[in-house]
Amino acid sequence: MPRTRNEALAAWMAEHKVTTNELAERLNSAIADFTGSYGTCTERGVFRWLSGEIAWPHARQRVALERVTGHTPVQLGFQPRGRPTGPIPASPEEDPLYRRAFLTAATAAGASLAAPNTASPRRLGSADVDRLNGKLAALVAMDDRYGGTLDLERHSAALARETLSLQQSGTASSRIRSELYAVAAAFATSAMWAAIDGRRLDVAQDHLNQAVTLSGLAGDSAVQFRVWGHASALYYQLGRHTDAMAASEASRATAITRRDPLFASLALARLAVDHADSGDAKAALRTLDQAQEAFDRADQSLRRPAWMRFFDQAELDNLATFAYLSLGQWVEAEHRAHRCLTGLRPDLERNRALTRANLALAQLGQGDIEPAVATAQAVPAEMARQGRVRKILGDFTHRLNAMAPDTREAHAWLDHRTAIA
Predict the structure, then answer these.
(1) Under a CB-based contact definition with an 8 Å cutoff, are residues 68 and 23 in contact?
(2) Spatial CB neighbours of 391, under 8 Å, sequence gap ≥ 6
(3) Residue 290 has what DSSP assignment?
């Protein structure tokens, strides 16, 4: 069979000005994030993909390609072995890469965490912690792409249980014990976040209780920062705004924010959203300025946990968008939403959908009904059904119906919502 040059991959590399060597390095780093071991991609291997000599990369390389580019292998022009190129999956549950990533996380974790049936307990060490952190990075990547699915919640909770089981079945130094508790807390926090993002708020509280306990046992300020930050989001969605503010303050007070301005920036940005929600415009705007100042001071080259990878200037603009919407400052909210969409990494599809939904609200707040409806319709159907995105679009529907119920745009939006429900 004659080779067919992979024009789609070549086009992506040209658009993003990525050389073959740079792509190989990025893929190897991505593989290290979700496996714990640096990948083996080479410049020659990328050339073989471009030439069509290799039509279907190895499984790890396919997951890394999706994480680095934000596109599935099929979208990048690769051809699955033994079958023609099929349609792009419409939902995570239909995506074989998604299922394989979770299967790998579950089965590999079970295999690596199972204690041998011997009289002497196994000595636990850094290799165990590294393996588990690799599983955590894989779950974070799935959350970036698909949001808080029920699968993600269940697998995160299962990995937390497996990590605790490992603690009971082996011996370890106090340092390794603390690190294992920190990983377990991170898994529990990922389960909590998936439940929050999917609007399963009742079970999110159970995950929060476990995460607080485990992060306390770990004594890890970075994990405690994450736990309280997500707790604030949970309380906000439950309508417990005083508790949300207290949780944001607790996150801000952790030691990691004094050591690393990037953590401080995220804590301040979340706190600004809480101030805005309470109607304190002066405090919200002051805190947003402080968040930007801290972000500008941060050393972006430092190695940080996988779950902190999402926070960049685009995410800071995303949080500012939420704040300005709460304050009814529609023009500034629209400006920040556009800035966020311009800078957002391609793999953060859930965040892109959230920002588009918020942009639609900002446009509607200014009375720009036609562009607002067009923006809302641009949210992909599978993301429009996702918990937090669905809620924002529900708010958009109510506001549109109150503002212009009998317009052509309102009827078109209703038809669209019915079609994707």
Answers:
(1) yes
(2) 199
(3) H
Largest CA distance in the chain: 75
3-state SS, residue 365: helix
Q: Which residues pair with 171 in a beta bridge?
A: 123
Render pLDDT for 267-296 as a digit per residue (tens, 0 to 9).
999 999 999 999 999 999 999 999 999 999
Structure tokens at 228: 């309280």
- Name the token pair of 181: 């508790």
* Beta strand ranges found along 121-240 (DSSP E): 122-123, 170-171
Please check whether residue 304 is in contact with residue 262, taking contact to mean a CB–CB distance below 8 angstroms.
yes
* CB distance 214 to 160 below 8 Å: yes
CB 255 within 8 A of CB 222: no
Q: How confident is the model at residue 399 (pLDDT cuts 50, 70, 90)?
A: very high
- 170: β partners: 122
Coil, helix or strand at residue 125: coil
Q: For residues 334 and 395, give the distance between their C-alpha atoms in angstroms, rounded to a whole number.
A: 16
pLDDT in tens, 125-170: 988 898 898 888 888 888 888 888 888 899 999 999 999 998 888 8
Q: CA torsion angle for 58, 29, 64, 261 (degrees, to 10)?
A: 170
∠ CA 212-218-221 to the nearest 5 degrees?
75
Task: Round to whole Å and give the CA distance between 142 and 159.
Answer: 15
Cα separation, 63 vs 174, whole angstroms: 35
